[in-house]
What we know:
312 residues, alpha+beta, four-stranded mixed sheet, elongated
Amino acid sequence: MNQTIANQQGPARVLGALALELSPGSSSGRDALPQAEAGALAALVATDLAAFAPEAARLDCSLVAAHFDPVELLRPGWPLHQELWQLAAKAPRAPGGGARVLAFGSHEGRLPGALSPSPEYAGGPLRLLPFVLDGDPATVAAVSARLEADLVEEGMAGAATALAAQEAFGIQVEHARYLTVHDLCAMTAMQYEHAGLAELWPLLETALLSPTREAWLDAPPEPLLHYAGKGQVRMALFAPAAWRSHYRAALPGVDAGADADAESVERIARLYAHFEARQRQLASLLRAHGLAVEFIHCRDDARAELAAPPAP
């Protein structure tokens, strides 16, 4: 995943974050810094990044002085970074040009644009301050290659940066390091594997890195999902009989005659309730990553029914 983020609206740019791993039991005193304090933290971040890749000093460095949950960054189209880049692009340049360090903090308790962290995802152990490096495409490419190759192994934040973030946000920081969004993807993939969500990650990765392509989660007894591109996921919704038919091979004993006694009926009911709970869990996670989830009632060929275009 060592690619530079680019789109048709502007030059390639590097997307990343200052990652703050909180000490167990730590909570945040505040989730955003006032504009007057944001600049000092952004300057420290820019200095750290230039130490890892000296050519980064020739690029604009833009930082949101607020911390977010990983799901708020890992969304198709990277909307949080895109918003940050667009706001930075509107900021005036000093006469003579040159690289800028741009900090976006709060004013009267509000952050600009769509840069506010969601209270729904507050309280996690890993908090992220997004940054964008932008400028000459050749320089961006060189810096990107350097950061993608080594940042995950060598990207500890400077002691001054970690201490400044800790004091500014009122948190206890165990580790402070820099990650590109691709590093964050790799880290999240491992976390989801440990959480029993390994089968879902390839679909999410497609939505993040190849959003116009399609992907499937078809690994019984998991719910059946089709990522149809453009941020849309379709999930198969089964009535109990259709569920039993579709998952018969993956769930021994769940067959046409399995309800011959009360014990079998109760077992099947428990399995079906577990399946429905798993559907709700996956749908909630997908939505947290900014994906729209549509439930499709399926009866016969569920893959074909999910892949079919919506009725006019």
